[in-house]
Amino acid sequence: IRATGRDRVRFLHNLLSNDVKGLRPGQGNYHFLLNPQGRIQGDVNLYLFDDHILLDTEPEMRERVRAHLQKYIIADQVTLEDVTADLATVAVEGPQADGVAGVSLPAESGAHIEADGITAGRTSATGQPGVWFFVEAARKAGIIARLERAGAVAAAAEDARIVRVENALPRYGEDITDTILPQETQQARAVSFTKGCYLGQEIVERIRSRGQVHRSLVQLAIEGQEPPAAGSAILAVGQEIGKLTSPVWSPRQERCLGLAIVRRELAPPGAAVTIAGRAAQVLR
Which positions ≥6 away from 206 have C-beta within 8 Å? Predict the structure, then answer.
């Protein structure tokens, strides 16, 4: 989603959970979109340019994210354009990402540079080092061919999902839903506690000041070679404490893994739990 118009920075600063006004062109960061009750309605990676702001979100979320923002445009000089059909993204992630991508980027998340009509940004969907290219759709195949010549190997969605879970990185729509509060996700990188007022900020600040976070994202190791179904109940001391999300088999770790948002007091690191009748353990 491309945001243009003279009020774009102020408008997004007032609606997103992280700082926008403090960014300079070439910088970016990660944000939640909240409702007035502080529940997460979506997430975006934001990239600030001289004349526009680019918001990158999960493919299935783009219409919802745009509609959420659009309804708060009243007298603001802001235009939100869905550029999905025109702008392709190609992600290179893994320990050798920078070398394969062939670009020099600052280490900070959200940093980006432009050259020859291509934007390269520092971001990750798996928790591994990553470089993402944003390019005209017609040039996507050429970017992929260049990366493959440099040693990149195409990854299926499930490959990326496995690595994401190995790194305990939640994804909106699977691990994070619109009933979840920011502090429950363990993604402090999405929230600024110094930026002032924004939609949902009152609830976020109340939780922070009182220290009352009753649920938290955890990573789980599960017995067996076939992952339990997503949504399976997680039991501890005879009580259901959450539901399993993003279950995978990790070939590298040779075990089943999953994520969940669970009751904190019953699932500290190392705690034994049961999922679908199988023994499991909270890793972190």
Answer: none
What is the sign, positive or negative, of the torsion defined by CA atoms of 175, 180, 183, 189?
Answer: positive
**Predicted pLDDT of residue 167:** 98
Q: What is the pTM of this model?
A: 0.94
8 Å CB contact between 216 and 46: no
Q: For 102-114, what is each residue's pLDDT tens digit?
A: 999 999 999 999 9
Residue 139 neighbours by CB under 8 Å, 6+ apart: 88, 117, 118
Q: For Cα atoms 63, 68, 70, give the angle at the middle one, nearest 5 degrees.
A: 90
Distance between CA atoms of residues 11 and 39, nearest Å = 19
Residue 16: phi and psi, rounded to 5, are -100, 160
Q: Which residues pair with 89 in a beta bridge?
A: 134
pLDDT recorded at residue 212: 77
The structure tokens listed for 211 are 């220290």
Q: What is the pLDDT of residues 34-78, one digit of tens each?
A: 999 999 999 999 999 999 999 999 999 999 999 999 999 999 999
Residue 161 has pLDDT above 80, yes or no: yes
Instruction: With CA atoms as reference, report the closest residue to 208 among 1, 32, 38.
Output: 38
Question: What is the secondary structure of 164-195 as a DSSP string?
Answer: HHHTT---BTTTB-TT--GGGGT-GGG--SSS
Percentage of the chain lying above the pLDDT 70 cut = 100
> H helices within the chain, ranges in order?
8-13, 62-70, 97-101, 140-149, 157-166, 201-210
Residue 27 CA: distances (Å) to CA of 54, 81, 198: 11, 21, 20
